[in-house]
Write a structure and sequence with these properties.
conserved putative lor/sdh protein from methanococcus maripaludis s2 fold; Elongation Factor Tu (Ef-tu), domain 3; single chain; 4 domains; 5 helices; OB fold (Dihydrolipoamide Acetyltransferase, E2P)
């Protein structure tokens, strides 16, 4: 049997099938556009003067956190405030059952009146030498103790109305109405937080302290204190240090500090996590580069430049601290360098780019007017 015609037919069928598939593929796939320079946004570097800072995590706390405790025991009858509301010093917060203390006061008053009458009666007899001086002195002592007991009974009755010792914002009530309150460890009723001013606690580690002159913190070195909120915004009120620990924590190796911030609008709440920024001085001749434009590699930090002939040029840089949303670049850049700040994942060293300033459309891009214009209708 001759297999040559069969092979010829098979080869012809294969070629026809490949041609059909190629034709379908050409119709389905769009024509690949010619490669051109990648449009990129660049920032032209200019040397600047920026403050030197140390920024660390911190937590807010009320300038004064006062416990409100019962000074007499009894049944808690009423809570006289709304939890979480601001209260004034002396404002009534809780009412403890008054009845037992009213009875005790009546007894103490009757006893004091009796001892006072007895002392006055014996005074005349003592002056007339009808009784010994000791009897009169004993009567005076008994009356003094009765008057003191009366005063204590009056205080106990007044303490059944528990008032705010300071002004501030109230916390959650520890006991509900009907609870039996004692004067021991169970006497806590609530707490009051003074939030204006607000205190902020934080610590500096060994690395932070090493950046300061002499490796230690001196209040005179601090030119200002700023608070950075969770959304990255700087709090509108400046702060000041009001406590610097005189020792280093031997367990953590940190130095404790505390700053004070005015809080008139109650924007800050106790227990809030924030960042404290200490302004320690100024540094000249540095450059600011957006954080997203600095690439961290195994060899260190680098940026991409639109170099000569508008080609991508990697440049190693030495970074300092953050300043707002920018890196402070201490070395590696010169005035006039064009740092690329977008499309970084698409760039390759030596690739051509079309640089443009922020907010300026790339060269050759259609204008908004042309893009939005509709073709004129034909009459």
């Amino acid at each position: 049997m001759n297999s040559k015609p069969f092979l010829q037919h098979s080869l012809l069928a294969t070629l026809v099938t490949a041609a059909l598939l190629t034709g379908c593929s050409d119709k389905a796939a769009p024509a690949k556009p010619a490669n051109g320079p990648m449009p990129v946004t660049v920032l032209e570097m200019q040397a600047q003067r920026v403050p030197t800072t140390i920024e660390v995590m911190a937590q807010t706390e009320g300038a004064r956190e006062t416990e409100v405790r019962a000074r007499v025991g009894g049944i808690l009858m009423r809570r006289l405030y709304q939890e979480g509301d601001a209260v004034k010093a002396g404002q009534a917060l809780f009412q403890i059952d008054r009845a037992p203390f009213e009875i005790a006061l009546a007894e103490a008053r009757a006893k004091a009146q009796q001892t006072e009458r007895e002392m006055n009666r014996l005074r005349g007899l003592a002056e007339a030498k009808a009784i010994s001086q000791k009897e009169y002195d004993d009567a005076r002592s008994t009356d003094a103790m009765a008057q003191a007991a009366l005063r204590q009974a009056e205080l106990n009755l007044s303490w059944t109305t528990v008032t705010a010792p300071v002004s501030g914002t109230t916390g959650r009530a520890v006991h509900s109405e009907g609870s039996l309150i004692s004067t021991g460890t169970d006497s806590l009723l609530t707490s009051i937080y003074q939030t204006n001013p607000m205190w902020v606690r934080f610590s500096l580690g060994e690395g932070d302290l090493a950046r300061l002159p002499g490796g230690r913190l001196d209040k005179k070195q601090i030119r200002g204190v700023e608070l950075v909120l969770g959304n990255g915004q700087v709090y509108g009120q400046p702060g000041k240090l009001n406590f610097v620990a005189s020792n280093i924590d031997t367990t953590l190796g940190t130095q404790a500090l505390r700053a004070e911030f005015s809080n008139p609008e109650q924007q800050l709440l106790p227990g809030q996590f924030v960042r404290v920024r200490l302004l320690t001085g100024e540094r000249d001749g540095v450059f600011l580069v957006p954080q997203a434009a600095v690439i961290q590699s195994e060899q260190g930090a680098l940026v991409m430049l639109a170099g000569p002939e508008d080609k991508v040029t990697p440049r190693p840089v030495k970074t300092g601290e953050w300043y707002g949303k920018d890196w402070v670049i201490l070395g590696g850049l010169q005035a006039g360098d064009k740092v690329i700040v977008d499309n970084l994942m698409k760039l390759r060293p030596g690739a051509p780019v079309a640089p443009h300033a922020p907010g300026v459309p790339p060269a050759g891009a259609p204008s908004a007017a042309k893009e939005g214009a509709a073709p004129a209708a034909k009459g």
